Amino acid sequence: MPDRTPLYRQVAEHLPGVYQEDADSWAQLAGYLAPVDALLRAYVAQLEDVTTWLSPDARSMQPPGLPAGAPAADRHRAVFDELASWFAFEFPASWSEDPARDLDRRRAFLLRAARLWRRRGTPQGFVDWFCFAFEVDPANRPLLLEHFKYRPAGDTSGRDEDEDPDDDRYGLRATLLVPRTDQFDDYRRRREVVEFVERWAPAHVLFAVCWVLPDQDWRPATPAAMATLLDELAGYTPEDDGIHLKNGDVEPIPPNRLGQGRLPGTGVRPED
Q: Model pTM?
C-alpha cells in the first residue's frame, strides 16, 4: 500500500464479515478486486494532491491527465474547472476578462467553496457570495431587505385565503440594494448581477434588485425607516398608467417623430 494513502482500505474490507470466514475464498475475492484497488489507490493519491494544486505552488506542478506540452495556465484552468464541477459550479465568463487574475480568482473560490455553499441560503451568506463573485468592496456591501421583517402592525395583506398571495408586499419577498459603483457602469455587468440573483436566490423568495447611488443614505437605521424605504421600493405602475399597444380603430394614429416617419404598428396607414 502506498505510504501516501495510509487511510486507504481495500474494497474487500468494506464487505460484510461473512466473506472473511473462509481464508481461501477471502484470498480469491481480494485477488479478484485487486485491479479495482489499484485504480482507487491512485485516485485517492491524486485527491491528496488537491490541497497542493490549490496552494501558491500549484502552478509549478503538472496536473494529472493533461498533456505535458499544454500551456501552464490552460493546465491549471482545466484542473480548477474540474474541481468547480464538484460543486455544480461553472466559472463566469467575466472572470476570464482579466487573465492576470483569472486563476487566482478560481483558486480563491475553490478554497472557500464549501463555506460559501453551506451558507449561501442564508441572508448573510447570500450577500457574502455576491460580494465574492463580484469582488465588491466591503464599504459598498449590498443590503438585503427581507420584507416580512418590516410588515406594519395589523397588516393582513395577502394572508386571507380568498386573497391572491402574490399581492402580499411583505411575504416571501426580498430586495437587494446594490450600490451603483464604477464596476457596475457596464450594462453587461449589471445584467450579470440580475442573472446571479435569479440563479442563486432561494427559489421560494421573490427577489428584486435595486440600484442605489453610493453617496445616498440608503441604509436606514431603524425598522420604521426600513418600512418607509420598502413602501417607496414596492410601488408598481398602475395598469391604467402603463404603456399599452392596442389593436383596432380606437388607437390614434402614431404621430410623426422629427419628420422621419411614424413608428410602425397598429393604426399606421400606408399613405402616411
A: 0.62
